[in-house]
């Protein structure tokens, strides 16, 4: 991997933390010592409390201390982040390609745990954690490490919960003095102000920043509260925020509102400049004022400044924009700016990759928003741009994100409209006070009226500040949601009509009321149903929990059964190291219990994992042990299955003749058992073995027999595989016409299955063959042009395009008559497939 420094790498200095460091904390020394004592013992701590009490500031203070230690501090901002996302972020932080390149990150839990154990950082999960995912992360990935989690809610989990409240009165006054540069002459006013603000650190810092920026003494600032109706019932945080917002000129108000529309992510100066329509230097100058006033925070991503706002500020801005019916319009503007940004940097250079990585959080957030609004086109544009950015996705570890983007592009929560209507023009925020302490003309010159966010003529001069209307509606909505949650906290389980949902509900109740035996039984049932529905990653989590439960029960039989299932699931999700670990442990238990059947199954799984690891020799030996058990027990069903797998291991181990002999044995057994599907698979395998021996005529015969059986049993996947194998075998046997026919038929099935990877692969094989004939260059070009949008960075496709273009020019010069193109690439494939049914 090329050398680069990922922006979420472990911080080795306080300045490298991805958050803005607070000043010296006031009134928190004792609490800091309590939290530190837990972290020093390598325990997990959940720091919870209402918004604005300073959880993130306290976490940043502790993290800055840990940056001086060898392990540093690894800071993850979270927003209901699932376990797979956290695992991938560990991989990116330490540039572990094994983790970041996995299409199923949950299979990399063990690798992530080993990575963290070897580096021993302080882990900080700051923001809005998902309780279940965070609990899994702490127990399965970060066990034995110091973990600090911040949350508004007192989540239950494998951690010590510590509540952070507002400051004591004296500490609140001291903070006002420190932040506002006040002396004791205004102590009484500060005492009154601290009381009004309920001693809340966020409100205090905003008030101090507002007074300092506008050069107002506390007595004058206190009068601002008289302008807010007492019936508003706003929280101290919103009171301070409303006053701060009113004190701003239009340009500053506009940027606050813009920051509220950035999908709760950081945004770079360049992106903010694009949305605001102002030069980056001007944006940085204006943002510096907001940062000084406590309305925004600044951090660094690579060599560029990045900004974010507190969740309270974001909620305030979003409420204001919703009230003006402008949130969607402004977010659409952010989306369009981001699309242009990603297109601009979808080039192959280290600097461009830094630019893309800096905004990937926003890319994912905007893509989710777009998908939720039925905007498939924008999601696809992100995908195409990222794939055109050289090796960015693989090098920087965004394979999992690309997979998620593709999922968003193909599924939506709303069916219509496919494309959103054009947004209305975005208004500008109202200027509340002509004499606000700022020179409006200076800033308005730098940010043109066309890009400011409010048209004053469109607003009522007597309109109240947002705290008196829409913000209070948000508060009442939250209260209603809390009441709804309380009213449905512990109902009896009623059937939903879905077996899995019902079992999961029963499991939640069992964890509150029932024995461990009952919990283990339900975990088995939930896991089995998840596996049956091919929810393999979810099943792995369930069976991992079952494993812990059986360990607590000291139930050896349950442990063995669960280890068998878990190891098989790890193979299915391509996590061979974890499969080896579970299977090896299971084999030990099977030997203790004298359970030959379980030993046989575990040996097969262990051999499967060895195959995935490329250890074919070890796989041959292990399959052989399983085969011996099957034969000794007279189990011909499993004997045939093991022979089938053993043949592939022997082939990979450079023994094609031995593999062919093994498959001949399997073929006889499957035929005697009437298993046509497996008979076809073995015939295809024999074709591969004879191909390795350069006996292509025999290989073609075997593949043809396998094809007919695949069509007989209606196995489209096997049919497509055998058609591709036949195409290749015919090329080797110099039967080029048959090769073209078979590749076309295989391509048809890929189109039918909408399998992008196979479409591209089949087109490469077919176009490469067709391009050998100048007369067929138009057809080859048609095919390549169909593949390019599916994978614009595929080197084979790009090379073929270049070859075909040059060949067509030469053909024209030589007056070669090119065959005409009729219809599409899909038609060309379908016409050949129709011959199979003729």
Helix/strand layout:
Blueprint: H1 29-40, E1 44-48, H2 55-66, E2 73-79, H3 83-93, H4 97-100, H5 109-119, E3 122-128, H6 131-141, E4 147-151, E5 160-163, H7 169-180, H8 187-196, H9 201-214, H10 218-223, H11 236-246, H12 250-260, E6 267-268, H13 269-276, H14 280-292, E7 297-301, E8 304-308, H15 311-323, H16 327-344, H17 350-358, H18 360-372, H19 376-387, H20 392-395, H21 399-410, H22 440-446, H23 470-487, H24 499-513, H25 516-532, H26 536-553, H27 556-572, H28 576-593, H29 596-612, H30 616-632, H31 636-652, H32 656-673, H33 676-692, H34 696-712, H35 716-732, H36 736-753, H37 756-770, H38 777-787, H39 795-813, H40 825-833
Parallel strand pairs: 1-4, 1-5, 2-3, 3-4
Antiparallel strand pairs: 6-8, 7-8
Helix pairs in contact: 3-5, 7-8, 7-9, 9-11, 12-14, 12-15, 13-14, 16-19, 18-19, 18-21, 19-21, 24-25, 25-26, 26-27, 27-28, 27-29, 28-29, 29-30, 30-31, 31-32, 32-33, 33-34, 33-35, 34-35, 35-36, 36-37, 36-40, 37-38, 38-39
Structural write-up:
The two termini are 52 Å apart. The chain is globular. The chain has a five-stranded parallel beta sheet, sandwiched between helices. It is mainly alpha-helical. It is 63% helix and 5% strand. The longest helix is centred in the C-terminal third of the chain and has 19 residues, at 795-813. It contains 40 helices and eight strands.
